[in-house]
Write a structure and sequence with these properties.
There is one protein chain. With 257 residues, the chain is of the alpha/beta class. Helix content is 54%, strand content 12%. It contains eleven helices and seven strands. It has helices spanning 20-31, 43-53, 66-74, 98-126, 137-140, 147-167, 185-189, 191-197, 205-218, 228-238, 240-255, and strands at residues 11-15, 35-39, 56-57, 81-84, 129-134, 172-177, 222-223. Strands 3-2-1-4-5-6-7 form a seven-stranded parallel sheet, with helices on both faces. Helix 1 (20-31) packs across helix 9 (205-218), helix 3 (66-74) packs parallel to helix 4 and helix 4 runs parallel beside helix 6 (147-167). The model has no long low-confidence stretch (mean pLDDT 92).
Length: 257
């Protein structure tokens, strides 16, 4: 784990700070000495976190990706670390309305794409920058009862992987945070599926921040606050039919009256 002050004078952006993981990340970066800009759909919540840690909250003018440009201006033209934490935990099955898919795709994937498009030229010119994507274990595995969430989180992970393999030799560091259950409003919103799959091993948001800082210090791409996710990922890749059968068993258990 990094010593406090390791990010002294770093300019950091964290989206989705109204609570949960986003707030925990913002607090930790501020404690490490960073200058922090925060954002949330609920500006009052973002402002409350900003006031607590001495950060600046900026309003959302458009989708979450517009925060990158606004934050860059607020930070004097340069962002050192961008935490793409805002996300939608969109549930639904094969028949979910297309607008749900569109919203999930726009927030969970395209906001990352657009933020990088804004920040990357400066990072490549300077030879350094850090992009942190709050993905989910659903991006490595899959979550029952949540087709849009699972699919778009796979997309977010794929984009983070592509960024890392394409630009790491030019100083761009990418980290994908993939926790299972975290005690946040998003877990509550997951309903009975979340209670079945995620709640039993849920951790506090601060544990996610600890895992990220440990991973950044060690140069890890994949950040697993629940270490057992690595074993699940191996099992999924090694024995896909067995994995799908076990997940289908969970699905049936969830559907049972």
């Amino acid at each position: 784990m990094s010593a406090y002050g390791a990010y002294q004078d770093q300019r950091v952006v964290v989206t989705g700070v109204g609570g949960g993981i986003g707030a925990a990340l913002a607090r930790r970066f501020a404690a490490e000495g960073a200058t922090v800009v925060v954002n949330d759909l609920d500006l009052a919540k973002a402002a409350a976190v900003a006031g607590e840690i001495g950060a600046r909250a900026i309003p959302l003018a458009g989708d979450a990706s517009t925060v990158a440009e606004q934050a860059r201006e607020a930070l004097g033209g340069t962002v050192d670390v961008y935490c793409a934490n805002a996300g939608l935990a969109s549930g639904g099955d094969a028949f979910v309305d297309e607008h749900v898919w569109e919203a999930a795709w726009d927030t969970n994937v395209m906001a990352h794409v657009r933020a990088v498009r804004t920040l990357l030229p400066d990072w490549l010119e300077r030879g350094g920058g850090r992009f942190v994507s709050t993905v989910s274990a659903a991006g490595l595995l899959t979550m029952i009862g949540a087709a849009p969430y699972s699919v778009t989180k796979h997309g977010a992970l794929a984009y983070a992987e592509w960024l890392s393999l394409t630009y790491r030799h030019r100083g761009v560091r990418v980290h994908a945070i993939c926790p299972q259950g975290v005690r946040t409003d998003m877990l509550t919103a997951a309903g009975s599926a979340g209670e079945l799959v995620l709640a039993p091993t849920a951790i506090e948001p601060d544990a996610v921040a600890d895992a990220l800082f440990d991973g950044m210090e060690k140069g890890r791409f994949l950040i697993l606050p629940h270490p057992e996710v690595a074993d699940y990922h191996v099992a999924r890749a090694s024995h896909p039919d067995r994995w799908l059968a076990s997940m289908n068993h969970l699905q049936q258990k969830w559907e049972a009256p």
